[in-house]
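Cast an eye over this sequence plus tokens and walk me through the fold:

***
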Amino acid sequence: MSQAMTTAPQDTLAPAILRGERRALARAITLVESGRDDHRAQANALLDAVRGAGRQALRIGLSGTPGVGKSTFIEAFGKMLTAQGKRVAVLAVDPSSARSGGSILGDKTRMERLSRDPMAFIRPSPSQTQLGGVARRTREAVTLCEAAGFDVVLIETVGVGQSETMVAEMSDLFVLLMAPAGGDELQGVKRGIMEIADLIVVNKADGDLKPVATRTCADYAGALRLLRKRPQDPQGFPKAVMVSATEETGLADTWAEMETLTAWRRQHGHWDARRATQARHWFEEEVRQGLLARLTGSAEARARMADLGKAVAAGDKMPGPAAEEMLRWLG
């Protein structure tokens, strides 16, 4: 048996990750994304092995509707940061193909310049049908990127459904990327999304769209002022800013705002408190997922679920009573 087969992943991958080797990081993320039970055990051991390094990156969650220019913004923003000597990791959560489970957007191909940057690491990851389009193991991939010494981790989500809430639960800052729009489009932005945003970035503020972007930014700034003040925000936050990812303007100002907010939260204890709350949230989520998998893992339980599902589909049972029957059977 080869050395690679007999050596535990945490013994070989962990030191390489801590040295910042990108190939080892890619292999480790593949391991944590695997659904196999033996890989799950190896992934947990690997995460324990790198946890002791105590490294922290700035985790920036980024969302926005398709077509708003997320990939263009991330590439321009990432290149600006690497030019400053910062190591940048991008975890781009793509929607999964319902048929194959594979990633269908391919963000790496849409960030060609950044993908060639030795200071950057881009990992497209299919959402694997998880709620909100956020891969269940993305937060573990973030931990691995931190252990590998990256300074900034950008977590991009598809921007549909509840993905914004889920990515905010694994980020230090949550950025909502918006396109220049009129009043009707502003009215369509859900209040809940506005309430979790730390920064609204109006992209495409160039050419003929610049006056529209200016008005849109002012509209969002006014809307943010109407929201209830959050304890984790200094005066003036959350706020709206303008950028042009294609002309690469406004990026430095946006980064300065992020640094200001991060420094204030660190100084006032909100950074550590937020991370502790997030860790507890994901622990409880793992317990819920594990219990669900265990309860329905046996062949008998799956058969019972299938029978009740057929009865519901045929109209013989209502979904609520059928679920109660299944829970009583499991209990």
